[in-house]
Design brief:
The structure is a homodimer. Chain A contains 8 helices and 8 strands. The first copy, chain A, is an alpha+beta fold. In chain A, the strands form 2 sheets. Chain A has a 4-stranded antiparallel beta sheet with strand order 1-8-3-6. In chain A, strands 2-7-4-5 form a 4-stranded antiparallel beta sheet.
């Protein structure tokens, strides 16, 4: 169960099995049913979750009330609202399971305790936060700088095989377009 | 000169004066003239810069060739293209001085050496990368979820006094709108 997390961490730091066991202790195994809400806008996010399997959408409502998906979290991805988590402000993001899913959750308090007891964890999350910044920067450049056609191709590359697990509406919400427009793009490209 | 950087760092970690002196060693003091280009799209970014004074625009060209400003970096802000820096890929961002400016620059190599010799620096950049992720997430939510009116009000709040140092075109490029549309918004709001 924790093999995937160990592999994920090993991309950033070298942890002995003993240290990894210590790291794992505060994580809690949780199952979420399809359509179950993990975080609702307005609530405070005090967790980070590592997705073992399944799929989540992390989304917000724009001024017109339309759902804009920030990202999908599948196996090996993390779920949280970092703004709410770090700054203790109500979440603007919603997190919802799109499939029956399994997650390893750690609370903010337990994570902060890990920083104190395991200094090498600082490096892990320094590297992970770098990757998160890169992903968010790419997302901005994509959403505001590229055509919907390119965004669709990027989506296919970033999430191999995921399109088959999503509705057309869900993909369109990630691309920031209507599902009618997505249909046109798919016809043109495929 | 380094007081501003010391203050900036002290928001994240406690460093003794001795440790701060060690931390400062690899930084290089640089002056940039107004309109001088610090980073050009297509080049590799191998630095981070701490802005002592002046102002920079960090921008990219969208599919239509229009300049979209990702952010302005004024006193106390950092300049880099984190994607290019971390992943050794050509930069998509451009960084240009909008005023005569002074910066403390550190190379990627020197920064990595600091991680090895000063473990407490891991925490500093873990916290800074968290803040960067929060800023980028807010920028996405703003650009794709909010009206231009709200984005303009957010800009005024985020960068107090900066509007008077920028052209209308530069502000419009940050908001993702034309300067004609910005004029209308300003008339409506002011």
């Amino acid at each position: 169960m924790s093999d995937l997390l160990y592999k994920n961490i090993s991309n950033s730091i070298n942890l002995s099995q003993e240290d990894f066991n210590h790291f794992m202790k505060p994580f809690e195994y949780r199952k979420f049913k399809k359509k179950e809400v993990v975080l609702k806008e307005g609530n405070y996010c005090n967790f980070e979750g590592f997705v073992l399997n399944g799929c989540f959408k992390i989304y917000y409502l724009n001024e017109n009330g339309f759902e804009q998906t920030l990202y999908f979290a599948v196996e090996g991805w993390w779920i949280t609202d970092i703004d709410s988590l770090i700054n203790n402000v109500p979440s603007i993001l919603n997190i919802e399971a799109l499939e029956d899913s399994e997650v390893l959750m750690i609370s903010k308090k337990d994570k902060e305790h890990l920083y104190e007891t395991m200094p090498q964890i600082e490096k892990l999350f320094r590297v992970m936060n770098q990757k998160s910044s890169v992903a968010l920067q790419r997302r901005i450049l994509s959403l505001t700088g590229k055509t919907a056609d390119k965004r669709y191709l990027e989506f296919l590359e970033k999430y191999p095989g995921l399109e088959q697990r999503l509705t057309q509406q869900q993909v369109a919400s990630y691309l920031g377009i209507t599902h009618e427009f997505l249909s046109k793009i798919r016809k043109k490209i495929l």
